[in-house]
């Protein structure tokens, strides 16, 4: 499979989308179809807006997937995730919605997302979603985010 780079945001000047609905996620062919490997993206400074108070919410997102035919192109993923900075949604909606969007785009063999959110109203909310049991033999490291502890 060849890639038509002119259709990707990669290597192009790309403005930050105003919202997730305006963002465009790009996918590229997986050069190792049939090989079971884990691809991981970590977004340590994810930001969205509380839909009730309008205050910013901060979290760490960890996205793990076993690619099928497609990989997510990282620049487009960065722009997509950054587009949430002015988007009002609850933690559960952000985390699961991002996961479902990526699953629809990539059609991976397996997918999981962990949303590790900093406290809102004194309570941290962590959200986890996956498409099913991980395939046998897939190396699945811990997501590496410690449980929240007060300081």
List the helices and strands and how they pair.
Elements: E1 27-29, E2 39-49, E3 56-66, E4 70-72, H1 74-82, H2 91-106, E5 110-117, E6 126-130
Antiparallel strand pairs: 1-4, 2-3, 3-5, 5-6
Main location: cytoplasm
Biased composition (Polar residues): 1-16
Active site: 50, 57
Number of strands: 6
Mean pLDDT: 92
Low-confidence stretches: none
Query: What is the global morphology?
Result: globular
Listing every helix as H and every strand as E from the N terminus to the C terminus, the arrangement reads EEEEHHEE
What is the structural class?
Answer: alpha+beta
Helical fraction equals: 10-25%
Strand order of the largest sheet: 2-3-5-6
Q: Ends: how far apart?
A: 51 Å
DSSP summary: helix tally: 2
Biggest sheet statistics? 4 strands, antiparallel
The percent range for strand residues is 25-35%
Radius of gyration: 16 Å
What are the defining features of this structure?
two-stranded antiparallel sheet, globular, 6 strands, 27% strand, QueF_type1, 151 residues, 4-stranded antiparallel beta sheet, alpha+beta
Structural notes for this entry:
- With 151 residues, the protein is α+β, with helices and mostly antiparallel strands.
- It has 2 helices and 6 strands; from the N terminus they run ββββααββ.
- A 4-stranded antiparallel β-sheet has the order 2-3-5-6, with helices on one face. Strands 1-4 form a two-stranded antiparallel ribbon.
- It is globular and about 45 Å long.
- The mean pLDDT is 92.
